[in-house]
């Protein structure tokens, strides 16, 4: 979970939301150690995570550590928010690059934990392989996205054409080369370590690379599909913290003892309201709602579009229950005029506040399992990048699936794109089949002939 | 690797291809196990793997164990081959069901090793979750395949329609429910175990489910895409063993000390020749070369088709080098008439014999890492199902990627299928756009008007 957390009032304030289990009682944990694992070394991760920029440190050295930490955390929170706006201003390409950088850093943080836990610093060749797998999977996923959205454009450049046509084969060959490399690199004394880290690498790829690829697909579908969910997670975190701080009484889940039902419900309601407002605001701008596509006529990347119906003001019938409720208050509303996207934003808000936190619980549990406080020390006062993105990944996947299931539907434009990738004869063949079938069904008058 | 292995002549014969490292010298291995490691329990897997059907055992009790094992292994080899032919005779549906069963059994074997190694039999709720994840990923992948090949058919059945339209959303929801279940099931003392097994489950899904899904896709594209590669792997194993047995001298790879260069090269050459012959034979029958599709006109599943060009006799120009070689022998061949599929079979043979074995090396290394002899004891004399399928999975993925990259190309039929899933208006819209663009390019004469 990102940003601040809701805590029971009497809970102590710490720089990280989830403290590792008390070190004073290691026996109760150690009986569960699986083969190959050695957690004594992971403390080097926890210890380094309080490192912060030295200039700031010296400027604040007069303050007590608790306040110093709050100030550092605050400064870097605002820095991140500013950075976020800057990237949005810079546009989709910047967002794609930043997503890639975040992904690489998250991969680095998780993989480093694996190296430390399984003491694999004596396997340099293997560590290179992990990065190689990161490269191949990115090559595959980014390639897929680029081909899907800009296939026609890429096909025009002579030297890119084979890369487009044989993208999957090339990606697979690259992966297999890594796989063979892994088998060749197996060393008798390190089998167990190597297989464990092979699995570790692949689970990390599954979590980080596939999901960050979905973030990029969301960006391509229109900036709003990134901005709204990302902001919702941040909003829910802050508001759940606030509600928990002021009204929190009833504990929510054992895994995160500081979470309360009051924070949970307050966060959810705030996120729904915030999501509606943000959606209403962003929907006004073509820049946010248009998918990024290649404009075949003007030969440039286009940020304009014919708006998808969810981004057009629509009169929606109120459910009878709602009509009755309004009529009790003497309001005779039978319909309401809104952007349908706002209704979808409610689904996203609910996911962000009900299921989203489980991404954070999962990350907390993971950190506890390996007795580390944070994933890294990239952002002073916040921990690692992964600590701030744990819920964003799951949210991005939800939005992607939601979008493809309820919004996109089979897209005539996409189908046309794939038709233009065919040979001329096949294009004519499709045209003729379409003409025949549509004529048979009486939908068009058949007077066309093809040469 | 499946079936028999090639071994250096003086190597001893064992029931399994890869013997675990000698137990007499455990120190050399155990120094890789950091504190907490416990592989002692895995021996219960190795020990149980020689269990065989009792009736056979008692019938053969007069023989010495080595011969008894050979006979049992032989009987079950032939039983498997017979079973294989039977399934092919029964057709694609039987193949899909058997693939699913094999996949479930492989999953079971791998996951059981995880449970034993990480002593997780005290986590019953978690073990159920593994199976739940197996179910959700199969639901997702099988659904994707069915929709891709029979979408139009499925759409016709009223109650299936939402399952088709929202397939990804439903699959994602099912998965997320499991994910939340995992987080909720986390128990303080078992974090590390639970996360390790969570990873173990997902890597197993990645290896077994995704790849077996590709096997099924291959079946849908035509039985030949399954039969040829599966037979190649078997042929390569047997022939590499034979060549190794009779001519083997030069060791190939440390990981499998019984493998020799002679076996490797002999196996590869035999597989290429065998692949050519088998391809030539199978190509004669529509039953093997036709993709399975839904015949919209006759309203039934169709095993007939207009043959793909690779399955039609074609005159191919010989490369100049080959022409020169033939002319040295006084043969003036400039072209050769063959089924292009036979050329593709050479690529597959080479993969089966050069890269394929690495699937087996990988499995061997895995078994050594966890000090087990076989994955299970499902097939008497052979070990677990996974022991026989380790190379088949990688091969299936190769064939799938190869097929989609070099054979399928964007398929007008597939595109038409996706057009019929659109609304009538969208179909007309596509028709009109096609008409305009094709008219502009002078490819059709525009005299059509739509109502």
From TrEMBL, chains A, B:
<keyword id="KW-1208">Phospholipid metabolism</keyword>
<comment type="pathway">
    <text>Lipid metabolism.</text>
</comment>
<keyword id="KW-0444">Lipid biosynthesis</keyword>
<dbReference type="Pfam" id="PF01148">
    <property type="entry name" value="CTP_transf_1"/>
</dbReference>
<feature type="transmembrane region" description="Helical">
    <location>
        <begin position="70"/>
        <end position="90"/>
    </location>
</feature>
<feature type="transmembrane region" description="Helical">
    <location>
        <begin position="260"/>
        <end position="283"/>
    </location>
</feature>
<keyword id="KW-1133">Transmembrane helix</keyword>
<dbReference type="GO" id="GO:0004605">
    <property type="term" value="F:phosphatidate cytidylyltransferase activity"/>
</dbReference>
<keyword id="KW-0472">Membrane</keyword>
<feature type="compositionally biased region" description="Basic and acidic residues">
    <location>
        <begin position="9"/>
        <end position="20"/>
    </location>
</feature>
<keyword id="KW-0594">Phospholipid biosynthesis</keyword>
<dbReference type="GO" id="GO:0005789">
    <property type="term" value="C:endoplasmic reticulum membrane"/>
</dbReference>
<feature type="transmembrane region" description="Helical">
    <location>
        <begin position="130"/>
        <end position="154"/>
    </location>
</feature>
<feature type="transmembrane region" description="Helical">
    <location>
        <begin position="96"/>
        <end position="118"/>
    </location>
</feature>
<dbReference type="GO" id="GO:0016024">
    <property type="term" value="P:CDP-diacylglycerol biosynthetic process"/>
</dbReference>
<keyword id="KW-0548">Nucleotidyltransferase</keyword>
<keyword id="KW-0443">Lipid metabolism</keyword>
<comment type="pathway">
    <text>Phospholipid metabolism; CDP-diacylglycerol biosynthesis; CDP-diacylglycerol from sn-glycerol 3-phosphate: step 3/3.</text>
</comment>
<keyword id="KW-0808">Transferase</keyword>
<protein>
    <recommendedName>
        <fullName>Phosphatidate cytidylyltransferase</fullName>
        <ecNumber>2.7.7.41</ecNumber>
    </recommendedName>
</protein>
<feature type="transmembrane region" description="Helical">
    <location>
        <begin position="222"/>
        <end position="248"/>
    </location>
</feature>
<feature type="region of interest" description="Disordered">
    <location>
        <begin position="1"/>
        <end position="52"/>
    </location>
</feature>
<feature type="transmembrane region" description="Helical">
    <location>
        <begin position="341"/>
        <end position="363"/>
    </location>
</feature>
<keyword id="KW-0812">Transmembrane</keyword>
<dbReference type="InterPro" id="IPR016720">
    <property type="entry name" value="PC_Trfase_euk"/>
</dbReference>
<comment type="similarity">
    <text>Belongs to the CDS family.</text>
</comment>
<feature type="transmembrane region" description="Helical">
    <location>
        <begin position="197"/>
        <end position="216"/>
    </location>
</feature>
<feature type="compositionally biased region" description="Polar residues">
    <location>
        <begin position="39"/>
        <end position="50"/>
    </location>
</feature>
<dbReference type="InterPro" id="IPR000374">
    <property type="entry name" value="PC_trans"/>
</dbReference>
<feature type="transmembrane region" description="Helical">
    <location>
        <begin position="166"/>
        <end position="185"/>
    </location>
</feature>
